[in-house]
Design goal:
Length: about 375
């Protein structure tokens, strides 16, 4: 009856308290970064938020860990992986809110924070991150990370299915290492052949984003770190127990790695940052994720209603924050509030949280309830004897 767990409304899992803290931190860090680089803002905000682009990498690590953990648990228990359940869960969790925001962007041009959108088919097929040119397709550009996650959600189950059917699942670690090495090689090749030749041009940063920052082949590191943590925790319980004994040390180590990554990536488009920055950042956040699920670490032991609610709104906030900041600044400035003021930042933060809450209530929660009904119906079908 394990599948029924996927459709019941379960109490909040204590093991996720630490991860809620991290999700809340990640969305707030991304919010600060986008606010400081895209909109008029207090000068000090960029100093605090300029490394906030790595919040997406933290989301990747968290996503890789949480999604893989669900699949690995069933594989470890020698249960058949119900891929239909997996894809239905992902569909109802991601698509309704995403399509709602996408419709707002296309139907109401006033909401757009920049001039132009990518073609609609790229958003619908989750390929907007491939060949993305910020000069001509800068609006809703942050959908690139959703594209990578959707591509990951598609390929991970298929790869696991192939490994299981070929009876080589125990060799999956070799595949993980291969993907890590491939990421280094792809970034090195792309940087050398498609980015570096334009180093002294005005469009260098656009080309760098196009070939290094947005494509999935460059940004798998965080997801792979998350998958690796899930695999170790599920299939190597002795190693898991040892790691959790040193949770506080791992937290300090993760912070230290990120401090090092900050200096390596101080010039984000440099060779060293482009080739080595993403895996180092992912490693740092991976150590912090392990710490957050270690019972001895304060992140695990101290619940917070604030971080819990922010974490629950993180997806809606990520989708809508650029729209709401843009509209809030335009409308509030008419009341005489300076766009670059601290007051404007506070008000935009509040309106962004309110907008995320509305999307969560109006779209996310109703569709999650519908998901539970659909999964329950599908599960009952599975129980029926075959003719």
């Amino acid at each position: 009856m394990t599948r029924t767990l996927g459709v019941q409304k379960l109490p909040h899992n204590h093991k996720l308290i630490g991860l809620d803290h991290l999700r809340a931190f990640a969305i707030f860090y991304v919010f600060l970064y986008h606010y400081s680089i895209m909109f008029p803002a207090p000068e000090w905000l960029y100093t605090i938020g300029k490394f906030g682009w790595t919040g997406v990498d933290l989301f990747f690590v968290l996503s890789g860990y949480l999604i893989s953990s669900q699949l690995f648990a069933k594989i470890d228990q020698q249960q058949p992986v119900w891929f239909k359940e997996f894809f239905l869960k992902r569909f109802f969790r991601i698509i309704p809110a995403y399509l709602t925001v996408l419709a707002l962007y296309f139907l109401f041009p006033y909401l757009r924070e920049r001039e132009a959108l990518a073609p609609l088919w790229k958003y619908l097929t989750f390929t907007q991150n491939l060949g993305l040119d910020l000069r001509t397709q800068g609006t809703f550009s942050h959908a690139w990370s959703l594209c990578i996650e959707e591509q990951f959600y598609l390929f991970l189950p298929l790869i696991l299915m192939a490994l299981i059917n070929l009876k080589i699942f125990n060799k999956a670690a070799v595949l993980l290492i291969g993907f890590f090495i491939a990421g280094f090689c792809m970034r090195l090749y792309m940087y050398t052949n498609f980015v570096e030749p334009f180093k002294d041009t005005d469009n260098f940063w656009v080309i760098w984003y196009k070939w290094i920052y947005y494509p999935i082949y460059s940004r798998l590191d965080g997801l792979l770190v998350g998958v690796s943590i899930a695999a170790i925790f599920q299939f190597k319980p002795s190693i898991r127990q040892q790691l959790q004994q040193y949770g506080n040390y791992l937290l300090v180590a993760g912070i230290a790695v990120l401090v090092g990554a900050y200096f390596i990536c101080e010039k984000q488009t440099s060779f060293s940052a482009s080739i080595f920055g993403f895996p180092i950042i992912s490693l740092g956040y991976g150590l912090i994720v392990i710490a957050a699920i270690s019972p001895k670490v304060f992140l695990y032991r101290i619940p917070s209603k604030i971080t819990f609610h922010i974490a629950s709104l993180s997806y809606a906030l990520y989708l809508t924050h650029k729209i709401i900041i843009h509209v809030s600044q335009e409308e509030l400035s008419k009341l005489g509030i300076a766009k670059e003021s601290v007051l404007m930042f506070i008000l935009c933060t509040l309106t962004s949280v309110l907008g995320a809450w509305l999307l969560n209530r109006a779209v996310e929660k109703p569709f999650l309830k519908l998901r539970n009904k659909v999964l329950k119906r599908e599960y009952l079908k599975e129980l029926q004897p075959k003719a």
